[in-house]
Amino acid sequence: MDLLQIAIIITKIIVLTFLVVLPLVPVCVYFERRFSAVIQDRVGPNRVGIPLTLLGFKKDFHFFGLIQPIADGLKLFLKEDFTPAHVRKVFYWMAPVLTVVPALITVCVVPFGSPISLFGHCEKLVIADLDIGPLFVFSVASLSIYGITLAGWSSNSKFPFIGGVRSTAQMISYEIALGLSIIPVLMYFGELNLSNIVQQQADHGWLLLPLWGHDADHTLTSKLLFWFPAAIAFLIFTISIFAETNRMPFDLPECETELVGGYHTEYSSMKFAMFFMGEYAAMVIGSAMIITLFLGGWSIGFGLDAYVAKLHIGDFYFGGFIHMGCFLTKLIGFILFFILVRWTVPRFRYDQLMKLGWVVFFEAALINVFLAALIVAAPELKTAIIGIGAVLLVVLTAAVIWVAKVSEETPKVLRA
User: What is the pLDDT of residues 67-124, one digit of tens each?
Assistant: First the structure.
């Protein structure tokens, strides 16, 4: 590996991680406060700006309160970094780092745009173009649970400990559904490389919008048939991401009505800010994964991507930056969807959360794998085998539903 390649990798790490993803965290906080204000018929932060009157100007520069995230960051940075005497200090200090770092590491396999070319040198807009992209994201992202668990345990306090235990159970429950839900997607594309998955969607239609790029191997009929297991996978994957990132309505580990502040009750200043940053960074990466697997990633769609990729000025092909803008637009749209759900859907009870993960999503994701396998393999199978497979699938689904209904506890009637 020569010095030029090392410089390119370092540049991509700095630009994509610290200049693209990390600034999205304060942007998410601003969106959260403004969007919630709109939903609740409030004004929201609109005053914080640059105090130009102190410099002799007639008016301050407010600009819709966009400076509010900087004020929040300064407030947290300047607050007293208090460490209670009763905590296990090493693990107490380690926990915030273990929460935020995994979320930032997973950025490296997300493709932000199509390749760009300068003076004949082509470079992909992804830090590490791994052939095990989704597996890498799941394995690294799951490490953040250690930060939350350590935060609850090391605080030596009742409510943080309950929050840490809740988070552990929640992560394990929904990671199973999360992993099973994308198996149909990987079967359809035959790939674990996220860049290749997005390229296939750019050429032959997004997984949830398969309206262009038909050929002998990607007929409209086969794509529309697969749309049904793809839609089920999208629904399970999206809801599981809400649970994995501890977002409302699944924010039971930090439920303020029951646990004060949950696992970060004993934290203040920048340690608390790192938990805050880790949650929003995980939300950004979760949204990026949903967009990449189901909504075409950086693809503009409708057959326009090949034309955009050829745009150039001299030897500089800049279409990748346009695709990057498309990706960030989708990303911000999905972040707004996260915020909308938080401020409209009430919090689940913990038993409802566990039941949804184990009784509903686990079985639904497993059945969806068999359905997707049947549809993918159908062109190679005989009609009789397809019919038998369909009947077995219906019987299996009915059996799972029956078992789930029978296993429900009948509420006892309390009599005076």
Answer: 777 887 788 788 777 777 788 888 888 888 888 888 888 888 888 888 888 777 788 8
pTM: 0.86
Q: Please give the mean pLDDT across all residues of the chain.
A: 81
* 43-70 pLDDT tens trace: 777 777 777 777 777 777 777 777 777 8
**Cα–Cα distance measured from residue 339 to residue 98, given in angstroms and rounded to the nearest whole number:** 25
pLDDT at 234: 92
Would you call 39 helix, strand, or coil by DSSP?
helix
Residue 117's DSSP bridge partners are: 122, 317
Rg (CA), the chain: 24
Round to whole Å and give the CA distance between 191 and 208.
17
Reduced 3-state DSSP string for 59-88: CCECHHHCCHHHHHHHHHHHCCCCCCCCCC
- Number of Cβ atoms within 10 Å of the Cβ of 379: 10
Torsion, Cα 261 263 264 267, to 10 degrees, reads: 120
Residue (of 38, 7, 43, 241) closest to 137 by Cα position: 241
- DSSP sequence for 116-149: EEETTEEE-SSS---TTHHHHHHHHHTTHHHHHH
Domain ranges of the chain: 84-376
Q: Is the pLDDT of residue 409 over 70?
A: no
Residue 267 Cα distances to 150, 160, 162, 218, 359, angstroms:
12, 10, 15, 53, 35
Sheet holding 116-118, edge to edge: 121-123, 116-118, 316-317, 312-313
DSSP string of 185-196, one letter each residue = HHHHHT---HHH
Look at residue 292 and tell me whether its pLDDT is greater than 80. Answer: yes
Token representation of residue 109 = 């396999």
Instruction: Classify residue 57 by burial, with Cβ atoms within 10 Å: 0-12, 13-18, 19+.
Output: exposed
Span 390-400, pLDDT tens digits: 777 777 777 77
- Find all residues with CB under 8 Å of 202, minimum gap 6, and list them: 114, 296, 297, 298, 299, 301, 305, 306
**Residue 326 and residue 239: Cα distance in Å, rounded?**
24
Cα gap 149→168, rounded to integer Å: 7
